[in-house]
Amino acid sequence: MGGIGRTTRLSLPGLAAYGLPLVSFVVGVVLWQLLVALFRIPAYLFPSPSAIIQGFFAGRIDWVQQTSITLNEAVTGALIGIVVGFAIAVVITLSATLRQILMPYIVALQVLPKVAIAPIIYILLGFSNTSRVLLIVILTFFPIVINVSTGLTDVDRNLIYLLQSLRASRATIFFKVRLPNSLPYFFDGLKIAVSGALVGAIVAEFVSSNSGLGFLILNSQYTFNTVAAFGAFAILTVLGLLLYAAVIVLARQLMPWYRSG
Questions:
Q1: 238 in a domain, yes or no?
Q2: Angle CA(232)–CA(144)–CA(137) in degrees, nearest 5?
Q3: What is the number of domains present in the chain?
Q4: Cβ distance 215 to 43 under 8 Å?
Q5: What per-residue string of b and e applies to 91-127 under the rule 16 or more CB within 10 Å gives b?
Q6: Using one digit for the tens of pLDDT, what is the confidence trace for 217-246?
């Protein structure tokens, strides 16, 4: 009996973590459908979930191709932004002088509105996929820089003093203490970065593109095809959740010793 009780108590957190959000989502979709039907809201103003699903199978839009274009831009820009952000974080951590020089430019680049930056990028590099990827890189590298640099510096000083007393080199201290300590911070920043990558892809397609989910959303405003816009919103939501979940799974595989609250 005691074993059964313990098993029941251990299974409840899993139910609360996955069952309740799923039930809440289903209830929200059902209420959405009922309210649209009850108030007879036209599809061009606010489509119902059933109308959005029908739009996926209507055959007027190649959803797979448009999604792959946006996803490819987002993933490519995110990967480059992660590498660049990690490299900058290491540099500004190892050199206080470079930190003082680079940080004002990094922060200034982050606070500038990305919609304002996009036209400048397109003027300099042209209306190409490279320009769109660069805009995504700008959106993704900042959280990596801040989080990784924090993880590399916010370490247990006793471990540093212990290795220094054993005459360990700076490289040994970096790889044995600083780098492992930065991994939780890195994955926290990565969660923000993958979300920012999708935002950057949509903004880039708003400014200059004739394909992708961002182009569909922008084009639907002119054609009053609200169903297509909501379909793109739904796909972007799913992509964002999948990328976020992928980061969590990767973190658990690489850091089995760490569990975030």
A1: yes
A2: 50
A3: 2
A4: no
A5: ebbeeeeebeeeeeebeeeeeeebeebbeebbeeeee
A6: 988 888 888 999 999 999 999 999 999 999
